[in-house]
Design a protein that fits this description.
- This protein is an alpha+beta fold.
- The chain has helices spanning 12-32, 45-55, 67-76, 100-105, 111-120, 153-162, 170-184, 244-250, 252-256, and strands spanning 4-8, 36-39, 60-65, 78-79, 82-83, 89-94, 123-135, 140-145, 148-152, 188-194, 202-206, 208-212, 234-239, 265-270, 272-277, 286-288, 294-310.
- The strands form three sheets. Strands 1, 2, 3, 6, 7, 8, 10, 11, 15 and 17 form a ten-stranded mixed β-sheet that branches. A five-stranded antiparallel β-sheet has the order 14-13-12-9-16, covered by helices on one side.
- Strand 10 (188-194) and strand 11 (202-206) form a beta hairpin.
- The mean pLDDT is 91.
């Protein structure tokens, strides 16, 4: 019998999961059968609890919460870039203000349906991104991401979202924060190298660059419509020197996934991306699954097939 551990973030959905946990736990018990719940108490607890679960022989670790919870649990599957228990699988039960990664996976918000997917246990090997970056204190740091990491205005949006109550919900909170960030943010010039080809570097003024393993970020933006979780490549979507007016007029394209044909948007594929600001002292902020952990310089490296993810049947979950 498989050992299943569920990592619970009671602060998910603005604290709603903690308040509703007795009710939610009954649904999980009915749909999953036996499982061991472990509850986070603060930042990075989900990473620690996941590592402890895997060390204790867990076959399945389920993240219940939003994109931030999933991000921390993904990091708990690894020691640096080394999988701690390669045969173990990650399951998702979405419950939070953010829900971008679940859309790529093909999961909805129905608790029972998500639990049924976990119980069925259909897995696929997905790629994971490794990010080496400059932390807020100026030191070097690293993290992993299964969905999307970006740099530019996204880091400022994260800061604004995470200092708000998120009472409006995920998408509305991100839209409001994006509008506020657009007033404050000035587009920045960066230098990008793809797959180590220094001689082919790109230097450009950018609003935001998404290094995408998944398809959605920023509370529902369909930023990388061609991205696949298991194709061994990032989709690197560059939103160039766009103004606030550009976003007012054309912003709908980012949510529909029809922006790749816009004049100030480009997309290319790579397994390694190195980026740095061109002007000394300039801070180009990072966005990693809804958090702003630091800034450029940074290197994004894809780890192909590094994680087993439990997926539903369907276009994105098909094995």
């Amino acid at each position: 019998m498989k050992k299943t551990v569920v990592v619970v973030n009671p602060m998910a959905a603005n604290g709603s999961l903690g308040k509703r946990w007795p009710e939610v736990q009954k649904v999980l018990a009915r749909e999953l059968g036996a499982f061991e719940p472990v509850t986070t108490q603060g930042s990075r607890d989900a990473t620690r609890l996941t590592r402890e679960a895997l060390a204790g022989g867990a076959d399945v670790v389920v993240a219940i919460g939003g994109d931030g919870t999933t991000h921390e649990v993904v990091n708990g599957f690894f020691d640096g870039t080394r999988p701690l228990r390669p045969q173990a699988a990650l399951g998702l039960v979405p419950f939070g203000t953010g829900g971008d990664f679940r859309k790529t996976v093909g999961l909805g918000l129905d608790l029972a349906a998500a639990c049924a997917v976990v119980k069925a246990g259909r897995t696929k090997k997905i790629d994971v991104g490794h990010l080496a970056y400059t932390a807020t204190d100026g030191g070097r740091a690293e993290t992993l991401f299964a969905n999307i990491a970006s740099f530019g205005i996204g880091g400022l949006v994260d800061q604004l979202v995470n200092t708000s109550t998120k009472i409006l919900g995920g998408k509305a909170s991100f839209i409001l924060a994006t509008l506020r960030a657009g007033v404050r943010y000035k587009n920045q010039r960066v230098r990008i190298v793809f797959d180590g080809k220094e001689e082919e570097f790109v230097e450009a003024v950018i609003n935001n660059v998404a290094v995408a393993n998944g398809r959605y970020f920023g509370g529902g933006m369909f930023i990388a419509p061609r991205a696949e979780l298991d194709d061994g490549q990032f989709d690197v979507v560059t939103v160039g020197d766009m103004t606030t007016w550009d976003f007012i007029v054309r912003g709908r394209h980012l949510y529909r996934g029809t922006h790749l044909d816009l004049a100030k948007v480009s997309c290319r594929r790579a397994a390694r991306v190195e980026a740095r600001p061109t002007e000394p002292g300039q801070e180009v902020l990072l966005d990693v699954d809804g958090e702003a952990p630091g800034r450029l310089p940074a290197t994004f490296t894809l780890l192909p097939g590094a994680l087993s993810l439990i997926v539903p049947d369907g276009p994105n979950g098909k094995t």
